[in-house]
From TrEMBL, chain A:
Keywords: ATP-binding, GTP-binding, Nucleotide-binding, Nucleotidyltransferase, Transferase. GO terms for molecular function: ATP binding; GTP binding; GTPase activity; sulfate adenylyltransferase (ATP) activity. Its EC number is 2.7.7.4. It is an enzyme of class 2 (transferase). NCBIfam families: CysN, small_GTP. Residues 5-218 form the Tr-type G domain. This is sulfate adenylyltransferase.
From TrEMBL, chain B:
InterPro entries: Alkaline_phosphatase_core_sf, Phosphodiest/P_Trfase. SUPFAM superfamilies: Alkaline phosphatase-like (SSF53649). This is Phosphodiesterase. It comes from the Bacteria. One of its GO terms (molecular function) is hydrolase activity. It comes from bacterium (Candidatus Gribaldobacteria) CG10_big_fil_rev_8_21_14_0_10_41_12.
From TrEMBL, chain C:
Keywords: ATP-binding, Nucleotide-binding, Nucleotidyltransferase, Transferase. Gene3D superfamilies: HUPs (3.40.50.620). InterPro entries: PAPS_reduct_dom, Rossmann-like_a/b/a_fold, SO4_adenylTrfase_ssu, Sulfate_adenylyltrnsfr_sub2. Residues 25-222 form the Phosphoadenosine phosphosulphate reductase domain. SUPFAM superfamilies: Adenine nucleotide alpha hydrolases-like. GO terms for molecular function: ATP binding; sulfate adenylyltransferase (ATP) activity. Its EC number is 2.7.7.4. GO terms for biological process: sulfate assimilation. The keyword DNA-binding does not apply. This is Sulfate adenylyltransferase subunit 2. Belongs to the PAPS reductase family. CysD subfamily. The keyword Metal-binding does not apply. It is an enzyme of class 2 (transferase).
Length: 413, 442, 268
């Protein structure tokens, strides 16, 4: 039963009407996760709009989305297998709701990319694939849906698989599985399909069970971005979440960007003043032997293995705001708990995020929902890594007028 | 609209649940200037709704010109024959033809008339109002569906929102109204019609959930309340402007509305007075009625004798019926609203008051072939009391989020007849509307 | 990391993040299970010494057990407790028997909160709402701006939240609602209460075959039938996935729809 306490959050993405909500409904149905009255509610709601596919309504909570037949925001739903519990984050497919899709998907540890076999790679298939790459989601399952519409033919499946593989390779996304399936009827969702004897790979559920709850950051060197310093009496706690590695009392640490070093006195949680250690993912307070000046935005690391503080870096940027990004305009760059004023000083390439077509080289602005290869300069050096080295210090957001206007990942330092 | 300028047209605009007094007041105060202008050139009167005063019953009377004893719809709910199973009567259960079925040669657009689901083929377009569980059966012809979807048309406001968050509810209400207006404009322009029915339901919903916002200028939602009626008035003005002198216009409501002082739990009253006994084991709703029961109520205040031979656990013999009816009548007429329960805006510690104006026997208020299926008694409550027939209540009076309640006697009717037609309205009833349209046609 | 530990870490991170950004912040404590758990998480985030006020919106109609519990633990845990009352409305006699329940809630809770925000100048509030409470909650963000006067929530155009980056500034006329427990479910709450042994008001535990599943003002709360008088039993009861009362008998879909519609309009 231990496993039942484990969970994995994943997101289902893909082009509108390729079957995201249906797959979710089917997963819930096949894992017996629907309470009877929920089932009743789905029937009722789908009846009002006269839709045949009832599963799709599970995730659609507001009337307006039901009516438009699209999911606007990110909801979450749960189901269980013998292996673990899953949290599905549904991500809206429609272009206007990319902000919401990102909000949901940025919490995910894995993704299912769903593609309608009869339609192949479409606009949102491409944009969502790009966003998976941007969000740094490494575990991807490709579900090729509606195989019944093409007579369950293996060669059609292979053709779409080929098309996708080529596209995804360009984004450096390497799916773990390509699964032919029919979400509506449940072929290869929980049960191996009788209609596709030529396929011997996993079903969607077994593929999910094969994924890992990624804790790889635990094996890296210590990174602890400082959230705040909190004093109780004369005790001074450095608050933060361990983002990589491990921290222990007696350990020598280095505080960036100042570069001062000290020794950890205690690693504490509430009513646990003498923890032996804390690992990646844990929120702690630590006290130090020397009374160093430490503040929010500092990064605590292991000396000799520390990331570098940089004032210029290359990144892939996704612009989320209706007003375009203008080269050189002043923005706030935020990475983990670090913040600095900064500017995009170069837009090397401007992409259409749907087609990944290069629209312009050496551009002066980036428009709503466009992606760019950019160079960013910051006033105060930030402690950064490439996304591939450590997620937490490899991704950042840009803030303008108090709102998040872009997400980015660091490609080169 | 095909501009066959010579042909007379008739437009019927319904404001569900809008009371005479409120509409008159808003017109006088300039909130509904177009309505005010019409008042001066038309006949405007208070109108009586059939009992019980709920949309399902009243709209069925409006579109058939018949009383419930004839059209057979006595409420939103009913019991299946020879059983206690709850059923929901719909347009298929209407026992007489609707106006558009009666005149198949007249091209009509019927937009959002309540209790006309599922739709049947007609010479024109029909989009049913609430309650419509399946939109495909709520629209004729079905090729109008694509347009409705494009307009983001919704049959009804999601009233559950009001139970959660009034702001969201209002947002939804205005959205639904905008889409409804868009739909009316579309069909007005694009289809060929002689008679156009258009019903607004937001007026009823606002009444249910926000009635106190109407009179109180300091109420958080006062402006929103008036804004809705302003929007409706704009449409009224838009329509009036497009009509010629030889066209006819009727604007009316199906029942009135007033502030709800308290809910009266009628089945609780029947239980407390020994008329009704429930046994929870056999099932839900009315299947709980045990053989000791003499009477039970359906929403809102329909009293049915538990007659032997009519119901599975029927107890009342034919010979006892009169006696039980009399006992029930007497008991209800004694029912008082206790002084400890101070009505909003009422004087505190006031005297208790009788809450039932009269207990009507079915023969007194209904006539026609369906009278056997009618409730034996119908309670006509004093304005401001809301009759409820929930089966699991623990007290006689209670309150909930419904701040408004229906009234029967102050619906309204405004008639602007085609030039040359004279109309006199002496205490009109909902079922008189069809007769007025009949006159216009001739 | 198990699910409860993950949830706890997510919540503590958000609690600290919000405090770091808004020192003018308060926790809304209804003394119920959700805000009680949030209070516990705040204690954990700050080593037992919460650096901001804990505010109870007192309608004066709460259960006596709630007041007892509040005063006992406010003292025991050294909370900076603010008891906010809408004295004006209370003085005018507002209560569940006067006006409607909605009016009563509006005045004694919503208006009360608005006044308190203005009085204390809070820029952010911690609330213990969960996504699984209602469909519309699925739209919530961890950091959600609300307009101060109308509490308007523009749920259709909300700022994005990427990774652990949130909207951490509010405009002058806005405050931020901080929702550290958005990802929790009712069952998670109870499993966590059990794991941490968090004190809870006795009303949640069955007495004479009844217990409260949620608590608030005494006149507006109804107990459910239950024999769950321990945390283990409550967890077991919830895991048994209760079907709601309306799911009793097989009804065709139109009937179910119609019934719900009529209920929402007060016709059933």
């Amino acid at each position: 039963m231990e496993n039942q306490n484990q969970d994995l959050k994943f997101v289902i993405v893909g082009h509108v009407d390729h079957g995201k909500s249906t797959l979710i409904g089917r997963l819930l149905f096949d894992t017996n996760s629907l309470p009877p009255d929920k089932m009743e509610e789905i029937r009722k709601t789908s009846a009002e709009l006269g839709r045949v596919v009832e599963y799709a309504f599970l995730m659609d909570n507001l009337q307006e989305e039901r009516e438009q037949g699209i999911t606007i925001d990110t909801a979450q739903t749960f189901f269980k297998t013998a292996q673990r519990q899953y949290v599905i984050i549904d991500a809206p497919g429609h272009v206007e709701f990319v902000k919401n899709m990102l909000t949901g998907a940025s919490q995910a540890q894995a993704a299912i990319l769903i593609v309608d076999v009869a339609e192949g790679v479409r606009e949102q298939t491409k944009r969502h694939s790009y966003l998976l790459a941007l969000l740094g989601i490494k575990q991807v399952i490709v579900a090729i849906n509606k195989m019944d519409l093409v007579g369950y033919q293996e060669d059609v499946f292979n053709k779409i698989k080929q098309e996708l593989a080529e596209f995804l390779a360009g984004l450096k996304v390497e799916p773990k599985f390509y699964i032919p399936m029919v979400a509506l009827n449940g072929d290869n969702v929980a049960m191996a399909s009788q209609n596709m004897p030529w396929y011997s790979g996993p079903t969607v559920l077994t593929a999910l069970d094969g994924l890992q709850d990624l804790d790889e950051a635990q094996n890296l060197a210590l990174v602890l971005p400082v959230q705040e310093v909190y004093k109780i009496g004369d005790k001074r706690y450095v608050l933060g979440r361990v983002e990589a590695g491990e921290v222990k009392p007696g350990q020598t640490i280095k505080v960036l960007p100042s570069g001062q070093t000290t020794i950890v006195k205690t690693v504490e949680k509430f009513q646990q003043a003498d923890l032996a250690s804390a690992k990646a993912g844990e929120n702690i307070g630590l006290t130090t032997v020397d009374p160093l000046f430490i503040e929010r935005g500092n990064v605590i690391c292991q000396p000799g293995k520390e990331p570098m503080a940089k004032s210029e870096f290359s990144a892939n940027l996704f612009w989320l705001h209706h007003e375009p990004l203008i080269k050189d305009e002043l923005l706030i760059v935020k990475c983990a708990t670090q913040e600095s004023l900064g500017q995009v000083i170069e837009i090397k390439k401007r992409f259409n995020s749907s087609t990944m077509e290069v629209l312009e080289e050496n551009a002066n602005q980036l428009n709503f929902l466009e992606a760019g290869e950019v160079v960013i300069k910051v006033k105060q050096p930030l402690v950064l890594t490439k996304l591939s080295e450590l997620a937490e210090l490899g991704k950042f957001v840009l803030i303008k007028n108090d709102n998040i206007v872009a997400g980015g990942i660091i490609s080169e330092l | 609209m095909n501009n066959q300028a010579t042909k007379s047209k008739i437009v019927l605009i319904g404001l569900d649940g809008a009371p005479f007094g409120l509409v008159d007041d808003l017109a006088n105060r300039g909130v509904m200037p177009n309505f005010q202008a019409l008042k001066k050139q038309a006949v405007f009167a208070q109108m009586q709704a059939p009992l019980p005063a709920v949309s399902a019953v009243s709209w069925s009377s409006i579109i058939t010109g018949q009383n419930p004893g004839s059209h057979g719809i006595f409420g939103f709910t009913d019991l299946a024959p020879q059983s206690y199973d709850l059923v929901f009567p719909n347009f298929n259960d209407l026992q007489v033809p609707s106006f558009w079925q009666k005149y198949p040669k007249i091209k009509q657009v019927v937009l959002n008339v309540p209790s006309t689901y599922p739709v049947k083929p007609l010479n024109g377009i029909h989009i049913a109002g609430f309650v419509s569980p399946d939109i495909e059966q709520a629209v004729f012809p079905t090729n109008s569906l694509a347009k409705l979807r494009e307009l983001k048309y919704e049959i009804d406001i999601d009233s559950y929102l009001a139970h959660r968050d009034i702001d969201l509810f209002l947002e939804n209400l205005f959205q639904v109204n905008q889409a409804r207006i868009a739909a009316y404009r579309y069909f007005w322009q694009e289809s060929d019609w002689d008679i156009f029915w258009l019903v607004f339901t937001g007026s009823d919903r606002l009444g249910h959930f926000l009635y106190p916002a109407y009179a109180n200028p300091n109420h958080q939602y006062h402006t929103a309340f008036l804004d809705y009626f302003k929007q409706v008035d704009l449409v009224i003005g838009e329509i009036a402007q497009q009509l010629c002198p030889h066209d006819g216009l009727l604007i009316f409501s199906d029942h009135g509305m007033t502030e709800n002082k308290a809910n009266i739990n009628v089945n609780y009253f029947l239980q407390a007075n020994g008329f009704l006994c429930l046994d929870k084991s056999p099932g839900e709703f009315y299947n709980q009625i045990s053989p000791q029961s003499k009477a039970f109520a359906l929403e809102p205040g329909r009293i049915y004798l538990n007659k032997k031979g009519k119901y599975p656990n029927g107890a009342v013999e034919k010979a006892q019926e009169e006696k039980v009816l009399q006992e029930l009548s007497d008991a209800f007429l004694q029912l008082e609203f206790p002084p400890s329960f101070v009505p909003m805006g009422g004087t505190s510690a006031g005297k208790s008051q009788k809450v039932i104006e009269r207990v009507a026997r079915k023969e007194q208020i209904y006539s026609g072939q369906q009278i056997d299926r009618a409730p034996d008694l119908v309670l006509d409550e004093k304005p401001g009391f809301r009759l409820r027939a929930g089966l699991n209540k623990n007290e006689l009076f209670d309150k909930d989020i419904f701040t408004g309640t229906h009234t029967a006697n102050d619906a309204f009717l405004l008639v602007k007849p085609p030039s040359g037609v004279d109309i006199a309205l002496a205490s009109p009833k909902a079922e008189d509307i069809v007769g007025i349209i009949d006159k216009f046609i001739k | 990391m198990d699910r409860l530990t993950k949830l706890e870490n997510e919540s503590i991170y958000i609690i600290r993040e919000a405090w770091s950004q808004f020192k003018k912040v308060a926790l809304l404590w209804s003394i119920g299970k959700d805000s009680g758990t949030l209070l516990w998480l705040c204690r954990k985030a700050f080593f037992g010494k919460i650096p901001f006020p804990v505010m109870h919106l007192d309608t004066t109609y709460k259960f006596p057990e709630i007041y007892e519990f509040r005063d006992k633990y406010a003292k025991e845990w050294g909370l900076d407790l603010i008891v906010a009352k809408n004295n004006e409305s209370i003085g005018a006699g507002m209560g569940p028997d006067k006006g409607t329940k909605l009016q009563c809630c509006n005045e004694l809770k919503t208006d009360n909160l608005k006044k308190a925000i203005a009085q204390y100048g809070f820029r952010a509030l911690y609330l213990a709402i969960r996504r699984d409470e209602h469909g519309i909650r699925a739209k919530e963000r961890f950091f959600s701006p609300r307009e101060n006067i109308s509490f308007l929530w523009n749920y259709k155009d909300q700022p994005p939240e990427l990774w652990d980056q949130y909207k951490t500034k509010a405009k002058d006329e806005e405050h931020l609602r901080i929702h550290p427990m958005l990802s929790w479910r009712e069952i998670d709450i109870w499993e966590y209460i059990r794991r941490e042994n968090i004190p809870m008001v006795s009303l949640y535990f069955a007495k004479n075959g009844k217990r409260y599943r949620s608590i608030g003002c005494a006149p507006c709360c109804n107990p459910i039938d239950s024999t769950a008088d321990t945390l283990d039993k409550i967890v077991a009861e919830l895991k048994a996935s209760p079907t709601s009362e309306r799911a009793g008998r097989a009804q065709d879909k139109e009937n179910t729809y119609t019934m719900q519609k009529l209920r929402s309009l007060g016709y059933m």
